[in-house]
Amino acid sequence: MHVIVLGAGIAGSLIAQKLARTSSYQITLIDQANGPATQTSDHQLALVHPQVNKKSTKLQRFTQVANRLVWQNFQSSIRYSGVYQPMLKEDWLNRNIQSELILTLGFDSSEIEPLDSKSALEKLNIDRPGLWFNTAGIYDLKKLSRQAIETMTQHEMIWGEKITRIQKNNDSWELYNDKNEKVCTGDALVLACNYQTKELLATMEVDLPLRPVRGQLSRFIIPKESEVGKHLPRSALRGDGYCSPAKEWDPAHWLWEVGSSYDEDIDDLKPTNESASANQKKGLALLGLEERPELSIREESNFVGIRSASKDRLPLIGPVSGQRGLFLATAYGSRGLIWATLGAELIQAYLATFLAGADFLAAGFLTGAFAGEDLTTLEAELSSAVSPSRFFAGALGARASNSKPTFPSGFKAR
Ligand SMILES: Cc1cc2nc3c(=O)[nH]c(=O)nc-3n(C[C@H](O)[C@H](O)[C@H](O)COP(=O)(O)OP(=O)(O)OC[C@H]3O[C@@H](n4cnc5c(N)ncnc54)[C@H](O)[C@@H]3O)c2cc1C
Q1: Is residue 191, in this structure, part of any structural domain at all?
Q2: Which of 132, 294, 301, 360 has its CA 20 to 30 A from that of 270?
Q3: Number of CB atoms found within 10 A of residue 75's CB
């Protein structure tokens, strides 16, 4: 069986890695660039943390499991370990109450620790109470994408081929370039090409409900002796936006990275002053300096990337109803590494099911890591929440005369 993965950003690279490790399929990874992670995944500041809400929500549980998987599996591409989420003083109860709430939500006390202002100041140079995420961090997506595919052989990868058209021919998927040459044929095709997945599906007259979302990260150079310089954190922070810890730039300056803008329906890669000053504001607010607009910091450079997002801001991961053998792994939005990690697990499970000719997505794809949790329910909820069929039920379902039952409504435990 031959599986083609199109797109070697973090989404496609982790899928290729998972398939190479756990299956005996022939795999081909294709990208228009000459190596992995040259587009949106070409950045080194991917924050990963579990979502924490007052009540346990599905999103919280998905991000919690994904955070554990990322922490267990991708230590070699972590840039900064631990993330602090400062809280407003009025939201802070006390340390014991916070600890209880966190345990009630299903977290382990080694994962999240409440800190009062005094402890946060000592540990992190931040004079605000909040939550310390011990197993969260900032990851380098480029390094991780490279590492994921490093054991693949040259004949399993095709670089420098932009695919402009895909087509089903009997039971095979065919990929064509702009010269109308056939680049590859496979039994199954996974589209992991971010926003460009929309353009490719349009060649099959499928309208994917994706929108581009531009994002800009800014790097600031800050004199150590300045007011801002003295307030910079010793760990990554998150809140409305996020930032890196202060890192030495030269003996007199810190380098400090802050993100990001979220500009819907814009796909322009040029950095803008507006986004840089919005990042400056976000950064100062994270430090509790929002009331000090006179403080200004010099920006050194920016990273701009285009994310893709669906209408409900959840990703599209799974089979396309009515198009046997076609799978999507896209719309990862601002949670690239969280969804890429879960996406690799899910796509591998879907492919195993599809290639075995089975009707139902097999349970058990998140197992191994977490004893004692009801993962079967979580898996069913996850596959259902991110299934492309939530958008396609009408239009594409109608064409699905000879397809297997649509995932994941037919989900059954093995
Ligand atoms: C400013 C900013 C900040 C962010 N912060 C975070 C964060 O803190 N944490 C986090 O987890 N995520 C973050 N993200 C999101 C994360 O970067 C993305 O979700 C992730 O990189 C998307 O990965 P991808 O593989 O889907 O897409 P990409 O990295 O864009 O990869 C798609 C690949 O497909 C290839 N391709 C596309 N079309 C074709 C074609 N027709 N033929 C051949 N190849 C093709 C491209 O060359 C590319 O390599 C941020 C994004 C931005 C922009």
Answers
A1: yes
A2: 294
A3: 11
